[in-house]
Write a structure and sequence with these properties.
- With 210 residues, this protein is an alpha+beta fold.
- The protein has one domain (1-209).
- The chain has helices spanning 2-25, 57-84, 88-114, 184-198, 200-203, and strands at 31-35, 38-45, 120-122, 127-129, 150-155, 159-162, 174-177.
- The protein has a 3-stranded antiparallel β-sheet with strand order 1-2-5.
- Helix 1 packs parallel to helix 3, helix 2 packs antiparallel against helix 3 (88-114) and helix 3 packs antiparallel against helix 4 (184-198).
- The longest helix has 28 residues, at 57-84.
- The radius of gyration is 19 Å and the shape is globular.
- The model has no long low-confidence stretch (mean pLDDT 89).
- It is a multi-pass membrane protein.
- The active site is at residues 152, 186.
- This is Lipoprotein signal peptidase.
- Keywords: Aspartyl protease, Cell membrane, Hydrolase, Lipoprotein, Membrane, Protease, Transmembrane, Transmembrane helix.
- InterPro entries: Peptidase_A8.
């Protein structure tokens, strides 16, 4: 149990500290080159990991409920796995996934309440509306409970090229890897899932048993 708590708290601290710093020191859309292949680029994401989202306010509520269900489900499974003496090949990556889910859940649930400005959904036009300037903690909030946006900032444009014109459908367009901007919570979820896939036989020596 201590290992789960330590991993979760460490990931959450790094995740939230980086998000709060970016949101209070970067204007929306601003980027800084760390290396040629790595940038800090501030975007706000109203949906899921790596920029994916769906719907407007209703989609936000639905996504928050899914994240809450995921967190509760993992807690239930942790109790089961610890009782069964599960190995670190399962406990460690699931702790990363657990922390990542909580990290993005915090943004969606509370950032609209604790920051004075943020990206908001305009139902009359059916679009998310960006904002200008730096955000500050406090100030009455910019959105209701569960309607805050997730802060993303990690951008790795490793390479790009233009597709040959003869390629059907995409010829002449630019391809960039890796285009999505993400955060520490997204990274924790991705790394945790990758570890489980790579070491699935050690994580589940007796097969999947829920």
């Amino acid at each position: 149990m201590k290992k789960i708590v330590l991993i979760t708290l460490l990931v959450l601290f790094i995740d939230q500290a980086s998000k709060i710093y970016i949101k209070t020191h970067f204007t929306l859309g601003h980027s800084v080159d760390v290396f040629k292949w790595f940038k800090l680029a501030f975007v706000e994401n109203p949906g899921m990991a790596y920029g994916l989202h769906f719907g407007g306010a209703i989609g936000k509520y639905a996504l928050s409920l899914v994240r809450i269900a995921l967190v509760i489900g993992i807690i239930v499974m942790f109790k089961k796995w610890l009782k069964e003496g599960a190995s670190n090949y399962l406990i460690v990556p699931m702790s990363l996934i657990f922390a990542g889910a909580i990290g993005n859940l915090i943004d969606g649930m509370f950032y609209g309440l604790i920051f004075d400005t943020g990206t908001t959904f305009n139902a009359s036009v059916g679009h998310w509306i960006p904002y200008e300037g730096l955000s500050k903690l406090g100030g009455g909030g910019y959105a209701s409970f569960m309607n805050g946006c997730v802060v993303d900032m990690l951008y790795f444009p490793l390479f790009k090229f233009n597709w040959p014109t003869w390629v059907p459908g995409i010829g002449g367009t630019e391809f960039e890897f890796f285009r999505p901007v993400f955060n520490i919570a997204d990274s924790a979820i991705t790394v945790g899932a990758a570890i489980i896939l790579i070491f699935k036989k050690k994580a589940f020596p007796n097969g999947l048993n829920f």
